Amino acid sequence: MGAVYYTLFDTKLGRCGIAWGEDGINAVSFAEADDNLTIKRLRRRAPDASKAAPPAEFEIVINKIQALLSGDKISFDEAALDMSGIAEFDTDVLALTREIKAGDTKTYGDLARALGDVSLSRRVGQALGRNPFPIIVPCHRVLSADGMMTGFSAPGGVALKEKLLKIEGALAPTLFD
Of 35, 81, 110, 145, which has the most beta carbons under 10 Å away? Predict the structure, then answer.
C-alpha cells in the first residue's frame, strides 16, 4: 500500500472522516465525540494516514456522503474501495451490502442466503461489524430477521442506524423526530 491520506468534513450528523490512497477509499468514519476520535477510527485501517485536501474523485464522494446524510437518494457505485487486507468472506459480504439501495433494507439472512447458506447469518453480521466503509457500504441497511435494528458498531450505535434509515426513508419518522 502506498501513501494514505485523510480529511474530516462536516455533515448533518457531525464531522465525519475519510481516508484514501492510490487504490481507492481506505476507510470512512462517522462523527465521533471529537475530531481526534474520528481520526483514531480512520487510523485503525490507515495507521500512517496524513491529513490532506482530497483530490477531486474523493471530494465527489464526500459531497455525496453529505447529500445522502441530508436526505438525498445517492449511489456510491462508482466509488473505488481499497479492499486490501480484507478477508474474502468479508469482501463478498461488503459487495452484496453495497447493492442495497437507499430506502431499502435486507436482513442478515437475506445476505447469507445470497452467499449460499442461511446459517452464515451470524458471520455476515460479524463481517458488517468490521466494515471500514460505512455509508458507502451501507451496513446500516441490514436488519435482523425480525426487522429489529441490532449490532451497529459505528459511533452512536443502533440509534445512529435508526436515524440513517429514517433519513433515507426506510423507516417512517416517529412523532418525536
Answer: 81
Distance of alpha carbon 40 from alpha carbon 170, whole angstroms: 30
Active-site annotation, residues: 139
Sketch the domain layout of the chain as residue ranges.
Answer: 4-68, 88-167
Write phi, then psi, for 170 (nearest 5 degrees): -80, -20
DSSP-derived letter for residue 36 is H
Digit-coded pLDDT (tens) for 38-64: 999 999 999 999 999 999 999 999 999
CA separation for the pair 39, 155 (Å, rounded): 13
By CB neighbour count within 10 A (0-12 exposed, 13-18 middle, 19+ buried), where does 167 fall? buried
Fold of 4-68: Double Stranded RNA Binding Domain (3.30.160)
Q: Which amino acid is at 175?
A: L
Question: How confident is the model over 74-119, as pLDDT tens digits?
Answer: 999 999 999 999 999 999 999 999 999 988 999 999 999 999 999 9
Which residues lie below 8 Å from residue 164, measured CB to CB, with a gap of 6+? 69, 135, 140
State how far Cα 65 lies from the chain centre. Answer: 10
